């Protein structure tokens, strides 16, 4: 408003033409870029026109596009910039989103395939007496979901390539029992199990729970006069004294510890397993990729492997331990298969009888501190 008269300062004028009454793209620009959104739209339009003339290769066959109701790539690229309607824009966005997820899945499947080809598994004997003793001694009956998941894991443990599986289940669904069963398969074959938790409190809780579950369980040992020995579970965290730590590390390297539970302390230098067979990582999203790999790599060394009858990899001369990662975070199965495409997914979708139903709620950041 200047002297009572409305005025426009530096207006952008679009003459009546092809864009009038159409959905037009707006490309946000920084102040440093002296290019208007209309100029950029013109360049994009010219480029897409040339692509239309030459044709854009579509990796999806027509029958698959029809079955999934997906637009072809050429029209999708055009309509995401210059749609004839909002419906056309949504169709284009759906196709381009599909392409993006497809690329992610191809990479993950390739990574999984490479992992299986480059690593040799231990091929555990999953019909051992140790697991049967453990299950028979449980003070409760396992759920059908636990039984199903244990069978899925047993199939992985017996395979020629290492297990790489995600176990998802709410708090109280029985993930610990499943994890212990997997580690016992390693102990049965004279290997060791390791469980890594993100905090000392959680590690101590796991230690107390596993210790209670395995109380009195005997391990078949042909070298023992009585044919059995007491299964040994230990805890390693930063709270452990230096003297106690040296004792644990010595026994761990000698094979005197069957299952070791701990925090990041498990992946520190100096922690050497005699023969690590199964790795369990709880709340895996709280560990970085390198941290998870560091614990698995503890089992890549050939420490005593020949004596323990491990099958060597033809290329590397070592075997890789089986890996089970766990999370209590509710993840839809389709989302889990997308995000964790390089993992096989098992879900504990059943709670033990008598357990209070789990309620999941979204809490705002400022309220979570109250």
What key attributes describe this structure?
alpha/beta; Rossmann fold; two-stranded antiparallel ribbon; 12 helices
CATH class of the largest domain: Alpha Beta
Oligomer: single chain
Terminal-residue CA separation: 50 Å
Instruction: Output the helix-strand order.
Output: HHHHHHEHEHEEEHEEHEHEH
Kindly state the number of beta strands: 9
Q: Could you characterize the architecture of this molecule?
A:
This protein has 370 residues and is an alpha/beta fold. The protein folds into 2 domains: 37-116, no CATH class; 120-354, 3-Layer(aba) Sandwich (Rossmann fold), CATH 3.40.50. 41% of the residues lie in helices and 12% in strands. The chain has helices at residues 37-54, 62-68, 73-81, 86-118, 129-137, 144-157, 175-188, 200-213, 242-253, 289-297, 333-339, 365-368, and strands at 164-169, 192-196, 218-220, 228-230, 233-236, 259-262, 276-282, 322-327, 344-348. The chain is elongated and about 100 Å long. The model is unreliable at 303-317 (pLDDT under 50).
Write the layout of secondary structure elements.
Elements: H1 37-54, H2 62-68, H3 73-81, H4 86-118, H5 129-137, H6 144-157, E1 164-169, H7 175-188, E2 192-196, H8 200-213, E3 218-220, E4 228-230, E5 233-236, H9 242-253, E6 259-262, E7 276-282, H10 289-297, E8 322-327, H11 333-339, E9 344-348, H12 365-368
Parallel strand pairs: 1-8, 1-9, 2-6, 2-7, 5-6, 7-8
Antiparallel strand pairs: 3-4
Helix pairs in contact: 1-3, 3-4, 5-7, 6-7
């Amino acid at each position: 408003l200047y002297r009572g008269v409305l005025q426009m300062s530096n207006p952008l004028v679009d003459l009546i033409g092809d864009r009038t009454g159409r959905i037009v793209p707006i490309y946000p620009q920084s102040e440093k870029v002296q290019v208007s959104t209309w100029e950029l739209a013109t360049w994009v339009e010219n480029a897409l026109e040339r692509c239309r003339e030459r044709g854009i290769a579509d990796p999806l066959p027509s029958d698959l596009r029809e079955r999934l109701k997906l637009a072809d790539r050429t029209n999708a690229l055009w309509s995401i910039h210059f749609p004839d309607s909002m419906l056309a824009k949504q169709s284009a966005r759906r196709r381009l989103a599909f392409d993006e997820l497809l690329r992610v899945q191809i990479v993950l499947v390739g990574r999984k395939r490479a992992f299986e080809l480059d690593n040799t598994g231990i091929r555990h004997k999953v019909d051992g007496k140790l697991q049967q003793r453990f299950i028979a001694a449980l003070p409760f009956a396992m759920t059908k979901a636990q039984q199903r998941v244990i069978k899925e894991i047993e199939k992985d443990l017996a395979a020629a390539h290492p297990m790489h599986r995600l176990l998802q289940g709410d708090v109280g669904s029985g993930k610990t029992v499943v994890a212990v069963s997997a580690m016992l398969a390693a102990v049965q074959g004279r290997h060791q199990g390791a469980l890594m938790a993100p905090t000392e409190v959680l590690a101590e809780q796991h230690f107390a729970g596993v210790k209670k579950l395995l109380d009195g369980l005997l391990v078949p040992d042909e070298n023992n006069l009585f044919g059995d020995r007491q299964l040994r579970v230990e805890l390693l965290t930063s709270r452990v004294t230096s003297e106690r730590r040296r004792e644990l590390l010595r026994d761990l390297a000698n094979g005197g510890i069957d299952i070791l539970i701990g925090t990041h302390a498990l992946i520190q230098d100096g922690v050497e397993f005699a023969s690590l067979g199964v790795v369990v990582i709880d709340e895996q999203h709280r560990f970085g990729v390198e941290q998870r790999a560091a614990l698995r790599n503890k089992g890549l060394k050939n420490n005593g492997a020949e004596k323990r009858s491990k099958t060597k990899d033809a290329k590397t001369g070592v075997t890789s331990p089986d890996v089970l990662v766990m999370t209590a975070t509710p993840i839809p199965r389709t989302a889990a298969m997308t995000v964790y495409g390089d993992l096989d997914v098992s879900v504990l979708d059943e709670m033990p009888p008598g357990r209070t139903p789990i309620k999941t709620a979204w809490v705002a950041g400022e309220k979570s501190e109250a």
